[in-house]
Prior knowledge:
alpha+beta, 4 strands, rod-shaped
Amino acid sequence: MEETISLKELLQTLRKRLALILAITLTAVIISGVVSFFFLTPIYQASTQILVNKKSEDQLYYNSNELQTSMQLINTYQRILTSPRILDIVANELNLDMDGKQLIGKVTVQTDDSQVMNISVQDENPQQAVDIANTIASVFTKEVIDIFEVDNVSVLWTAEVADAQSPVKPQPMLNIAIALVVGLMAGVGLAFLLEYLDNTVKNEQDVEKVLELPILGVISVIDEAKMVEASARRQARNTKARGETVGS
Length: 248
C-alpha cells in the first residue's frame, strides 16, 4: 500500500512540475542546437595507413621471427610517429603555423594487433588534414631508415579528400539528443528538489502528516459566488411559494 502511495506522489509531483520540466528540457535542446550549428567549428578527419613489414627479395614467404619482430616494433613506431622528430619535419614541409608539439594534438595513431598502423589527422581544413596525414606517412618511411637502419615500412593507403566530405565533429543531432536527456534529468531532479524543499501545508493530508494526528473534520472552502447564487435560488423559490399561496 505504501509503495502505491509513494508512486502516486511521484507522479503527482511530475504532473505538478510538468511545465518546469518541459521548459528546462526545451532550453537545453535549443542551447545545444544553437551552439552545435552556429558556434562550434567543423572538424574534418583524414586517414592513411602504413604497413610494417621487412622487405626481402630473397624470401617468398613470411618468416615467423621477422613477423614477431615487426609486431613488437609497432608500439615503438607509434611513439615515433607522434614525436617532434617526425612532426617538426611535417610542420616545416607544409609551412604550418605550428610546431610538432602543437601538431601532435591533431594526430592519432591506432593499430588493431596487426602490422597495419592507421594515422588519423583532424583539422578544420579537410585538404590540410589530408596533407598532414600523407606527409606524416611519407616522412616516417624515410626517417625510420635512419633511426633503425631498416627498411620495413611502406605506405599502404594514402588519404584523399572525399566529395561532400562531412565533418567528424561536432555531431549536432547527437549533441541535441544528449542535451534532451540531460535536460530531462535536470528538470525531473529540480522538480523533486523543489517538492522536497516545499514544506507549506496545502491540504488535510499535509496536516495529518505534520501533526501525526488523525483528522476529525474538515472545513470546506466557501465560494462567495456560489453562496450568492444559492441565496438567489432560495429567494426565487420563496417568492414562487408565496405567490402560489396567495393565489390559492
